[in-house]
UniProtKB/TrEMBL annotation:
Protein name per the record: TonB-linked SusC/RagA family outer membrane protein
Gene3D superfamilies the record matches: Carboxypeptidase-like, regulatory domain, TonB-dependent receptor, beta-barrel domain, TonB-dependent receptor, plug domain
Keyword DNA damage: no
Leader sequence segment: 1-29
Gene Ontology, cellular component aspect: cell outer membrane
Domain of life: Bacteria
Amino acid sequence: MKLKLKLSFSACLRTLFCYLLLVSTHAFSQSGTTKQVKGIVRDKVGPLPGVSVKLKGTNQGTSTDANGQFSIGIQNGQTLIFTAIGFESKEIAYNGQAQVSTTLTETFANLDEVVVVGYGTTTKKEVTSAITSLKPDDFNKGNIGNPVGLIQGKVAGLNISRPAGGDVNGGYDIQLRGLTTLSGGQGPLFVIDGIIGGDLNSVNNDEIESIDILKDGSAAAIYGTRGTNGVILITTKKGKAGVNSIEYSNYASIQTVAKKLRNLNADEFRQAIATQYPGRSKEFDFGANTDWFDEITQTPVDIYNNVSMTGGTENFNYRAAVNYRDAKGIVRDNNNKRMQSKVSITQKGFNNKLTINYNLSYTDTKRDFTDQQIMQQAFRRNPTEPVYDPANTIAGGYYRNTGPFEYYNPVAMINEEINGGKQQTFTGSAKLTYAILDGFNVSASGSTVRDSYKNAQYQSRYYPIGIGNNGRAYIGTGETNNRLLELSSDYRKKIGKHDIQAVVGYSFQDATDESFTGSNNNFDVDLYTFNNIGAGAALSQGSASLYSHKESNRLIAFFGRVVYNFNEKYLAQISLRHEGSSRFGVNNKWGNFPAASVGWRVNKENFLTNVSWLSDLKLRGGFGVTGNQDIGNYRSLQLLAAGGRILYNGTWINTYPPASNPNPDLRWEKKEELNVGADFGFLKGRVSGSVDYYVRNTKDLLWTYAVPVPPNLYNTSYANVGTIRNSGLEVTLNLIPVKTASFYWNASVLFSRNRNKLVSFSNPDAGYKLNDLKTGYIGSDVQTWTHQIKEGGALGNFVALKFLGIDGGGNPIYQDTDGNGVINENDRQIVGNAYPKFQLSFANTFNYKNFDLSFNFRGSFGNDVLNIHRLYYENFGYLGGKNILLSALDFPNFKGKAEYSSRYVEKASYVKLDNLSLGYNFNINKLIVKKIRIYATGQQLLTFTKYKGVDPEVQLAGLSPGIDAYNYYPRTRTYTLGLNMVF
């Protein structure tokens, strides 16, 4: 079945928006006869803000303001429902009272807490899959520029790391429940306010209402070909009827280096030269005392300001926010300046049967990039060399030493390069929902995300790597457009003890990506930088470069889900997504992704109803099938590439040879996952948590295999061969050791462990055979691989010669595993594994009157890291021409060179104090300012580890995890002072 849709998406979107506009201008004159009633909601302490107040059986509702007050239109005989997280819901019938006020009773088990799932919401007590829901109170505090950083260490089984350290333009690596692919995308799918694949750069952290993580297959299968690596749903704040306020947030942060590589200072360098090379000091001592690290770093100050406004009535409410963040990195000229703005509007009409939601956001980001090679150059630079040499006019007055290989002045690298980028992201969406009958709604939604960027770089004639090029300019521009149209209907009906929910829908998504780059060099002057790129002489010489590219992909899906709840005791859910992707072969465009899960709330059984210490006990199990189509476009097609020119009939013409083999059977990687778990609560919720065990098999792994030519047109083929298995255990434990009127202590412990195995990745009968896979290539003087993957074995294994010690001559001794008296690659063995045996997190929050204190510890245990810096520089082979590690002096007789072995694969378990925050809340309800909060936060404060490198937390993504990067950016400690105000 072929994937076709002839109707223009833009036409659909225009029609939808016009219809929404027409309806919104007409509908709001329609209203029933109601009486406006006011009231106040309290708890045992005082007024309770943020309580949801709804008319039973309708979509009409409001919320209490900061003083617990509300106002709502109501008719005699109708019933008000009051709900709030952490409190028992309450219903009050209206019979003409002048005021409706009530007091809510606190409950320890938040079983009615709303959880966002794919294409809808449910409550915590109804969840039958492995889902974690986090609210702003659960997020990490402090200077966090990316929403992913808010949940680091907060979800069992979700591993989040930042390989780029303190680089303000660096991103996060995210891995949920282990590695599930060899060549496809490894990160989860992000859904932002219903927009599938939304841009994280457009999300303001202060505007996030909740983050929900769909971890297992039964939860994620509703997203079909994109659900294999899990789904993260981000829901932003919306306006609330009756709540009128202005919120202001501000913070300032400074950063310091948490740890740096300890190389030799000038005095130590001179002493080492005198010891290792007696009488040759004049060759290597240039008379200066330079701290190259200090020369390229700074103490950055970050500033953040955010203003949001919310207000409205039952029929029209809004929320608008704008913020500006100026972030600087520890390396000079490393900046990120970002402005974000967002408007969310909700309108109702036709007696509240019609609801229209509009969301518009715009983000403008300016970046100054840093070359992470600069830090490596500063590390290995001779500390007796000066920074500047005014007599060296060829180098622009910088000191230049052309002797050592790949040896450049890092100060010149910073000063003589402009490397920046601009990015604009626009997101617009609208959703129309109409209540046809009580509990039966139909919806239509459309969204567009447009992301455009321009990166520009200029290296002057004095840039040390390119001296002689007379300047080099580069410009790259691009744009992506992601358009989504979805039509759906949902139904919910409660008949006695039976509660049925259902949703069915259609989804169409179209994405395009185009780019253009150009480069030129050999300029007369550096004056124009990249703004007159055509002036370079390389263009006329034929050595300039131009490149342009455009591609697109399309997804079409039909989906449905049915949820059944009997007496809030027996729970069941089934879902199915039938989806087609243009990325796959003509024989496999479409696929089915089913899921089923069940739950049993055991504590609701008669034999447990009188067990007072048991608050909740739910057993659940689920199975789901998901896919991974994140492989790039056109991989199933035969592609052509521009080849050389040939003379044909007296004319030079271009040739276009094959660049790939067609594969009409290419299909998505398919993951089948079984998850069993339990949710529990004891002592009125003072102890609660969950346990999950999972087994996930990812089949039809995609990999590029060598194939013969002929019969193939090209020497490699991209094909589905292989299976990876992950299995693991996750435990979440929440504790409330103390809870009084003035003091509250909440603690949580997370535990997770995952085991993986490559079951197979060969199919000799089909012509796809691999004995093993060697990855993790180390370049420069070493030039070898570090990891080896074999069928039936674990991923992440370091395979190297086993280091036994140093002999009398100062040479390394390696184990001769095959006993033939010759040390070579055949003697390699498994010497470690990059993945942890288990991970732990421990978080605490204390509230005493108006004070609050929180701290988070996070640990990884049993993982190994290849210390690449020790491998290269814990010897004397580079001393003189380059600097070395101070630890090399601990082995003065070692004569070995830079060589990969088990000596440098270190045990790298660690425990980190990720976050420490202290705050104070002022409640000033009688003034214009309603609330003030001041706080101080420290991030990445302490690391406890035996690892000798900069940081044991390194990249775990990909097929060669656990290598400490050769070119790196140091991690930083961040100290923040902040202020939040509500008017």
